[in-house]
Amino acid sequence: MIRPANIDDLCAVIAEARDSGTKLRLRGGGTKDAIGAPCDAQIIDTCGFAGVVNYDPPELVLTVGAGTPLAEIETLVASEGQMLAFDPFDHGAMLGNDGGATIGGVVAAGVAGPARLSRGGARDHLLGFTAVSGRGETFVAGAKVVKNVTGYDLPKLMAGSWGRLAALTELTLKVLPAPRTRLTLAMRGLDATGAVAAMARAMGSAAEVTAAAHLPDWQGKAVTALRLDGFAESVAARAAMLTGFEALEGGDALWMAVRDAAPLPRELPLWRLIVAPGQAPDVIAALPGAEWLFDWAGGLIWLASNADPAVIRTAAEAADGHATLMRASEAMRRAVPALHPQPTALAAIEERVRRAFDPDGVFETGRF
Questions:
Q1: Class for domain 7-177, per CATH?
Q2: Which residue(s) pair with 273 in the sheet?
Q3: Three-state SS for 189?
Q4: Is 12 helix (H, G, I), strand (E, B) or coil?
């Protein structure tokens, strides 16, 4: 494992790897090591790029090193009554890894929790970054301000790239004020179809729902849950609009369980399906015997199943979506691609983009 101390060291390491044909795998806290196929590439530890570069609470802008632990950032912004709006989380609980996620790893993996439904994902809050390409060259994209309309929108490209384009060293993120009140509402006893319909009605109302999920078994009952955030008076008024839902005690525990897919059995492969919300019940119907829960009002299905991966991915495609293998045995991860295979035309575009940043495939480790 190589741990560059500064950006010049990182450039030199990548340039040397390019010249020698060595493959490099970028690694932050290591909490997502078990996603994707095992690989023998040289590991670049990015935790040396840690620390707060600049934090301006009145402007809602935070610049940090990519190797800064997520937990430290959340503590910092919480001290100012603010938050990372895209609801990021550490995959440690889900994947059985006790390491601490870094903000660079979170952004590179495009991680977002239940509040993504209303506030967007990491790509929507990444204002700018500094990185080193597969050419061993430093480049900067975006800006350190909220309003920026110049140049190509590379931050959106970098978020969710899984370290296949460049090594992130510094990130500028937009933060938001944290809500003063949080209320979880629930409706019990609905099946998948009824739950999706109820969540759709709530999302279409004026209640400004932050998050919506359905758990077929939460403390012995099927629960369809909504989350409202804001000032106490506003939350109370909006809750009154949502007929049929009642306040639920222990809401924070429910949302953490949804975020981490905690109710699903750990002995089964875990899949993350992104689908058209209205078609989520059809996906479940096509996969009998699977255990599941819905997040993002049905747009995200956490699925635990031993079904044929091709069958799972076909069901996701039929719902205008895709399926990512998140947790499985090493043998399965070697045999089944973690990321959903792209159509031929899209795969060709993706290949050209990767070659633009990494012409010699320094970051092409075979993991994905």
A1: alpha beta
A2: 301, 323
A3: coil
A4: helix
